[in-house]
Design goal:
Length: 249
């Protein structure tokens, strides 16, 4: 299954900065007709609209607010590609006194938020002929780092849900992509102390649309991600991507 973004309508969550902004700009560069900038504060998308005109449409969207997601799906009913980029990170180890609170917050946004997006937009994508759903996961979905253990747990869970969505949405011809960046030059990376080896957000954006065009499920966009992805490849091919007829007991 492969997908060309040219002449398509795309929705990007968290599109006002960082990776989301780079994804929006790459979609336009590759010929997308329109991109919905799905953000909590629609005013934050004003610079994008000033630069790109009516090819960018700001839409209110909050992964913690199910009603906003349902409303967005109704307003953006012509969406053909959903890129769920928005997410949160709390730097907490498993023994941090605030670890449980951090994990609950991250699960609500990073996992339940993804599920809310999928449930709201699956019918929209189906009506467009299938389209595509892209989820921003992380290298920490397959490798936990102690200082961000709760974030790693939430991304492991979102990766699991992404795999399930790939199989659930296959019959409606929706392509699902799981993106696993390493350190990227964003506010989130800076907050986690990872800015030293971080790469530009554009590497993630380009890798996403290349994967859509090539029909690939996993995306390992940057240097660290490629290293981890190469080590993970055998398991991915033989287990994650394998067509297993029955679920394990």
């Amino acid at each position: 299954m492969a997908f060309d973004v040219k002449n398509k309508t795309v929705l990007v969550t968290g599109a006002n900065r960082g990776i989301g902004k780079a994804i929006l700009e790459e979609a336009l560069q590759r010929g997308a007709t329109k991109v919905y900038a799905a953000v909590r504060d629609v005013d934050s998308a004003s610079p994008l609209i000033a630069e790109h005109g009516d090819r960018v449409v700001a839409i209110a969207f909050d992964l913690e607010d199910p009603a906003s997601i349902v409303a967005a799906a109704k307003l953006a009913a012509d969406t053909e590609v959903v890129v769920n980029n928005a997410g949160v990170l709390k730097s907490a180890s498993a023994i941090d006194p605030n670890a449980i609170d951090s994990l609950q917050y991250e699960m609500n946004v990073n996992v339940y938020g993804l599920m809310r997006v999928a449930q709201a937009f699956a019918p929209v994508l189906k009506s467009s002929g299938g389209g595509a759903l892209v989820q921003l996961n992380s290298v920490v979905s397959v490798k936990t780092f102690a200082d961000v253990a709760t974030y790693s747990a939430s991304k492991a869970a979102s990766y699991a849900i992404t795999q399930g969505l790939r199989d659930s949405l296959r019959d409606q011809n929706t392509q699902v992509v799981s993106v696993h960046p390493g350190p990227i030059q964003t506010d989130m990376a800076t907050a986690a102390g990872l800015e030293e080896n971080a790469e530009p957000p554009s590497v993630v954006a380009m890798a996403i649309f290349d994967a859509l065009a090539e029909g690939r499920f996993h995306v390992w966009p940057d240097s660290m991600a490629k290293q981890i992805g190469a080590a993970y490849q055998s398991f991915a091919e033989n287990v994650v991507d394998a067509d297993m007829e029955e679920s394990p007991a």
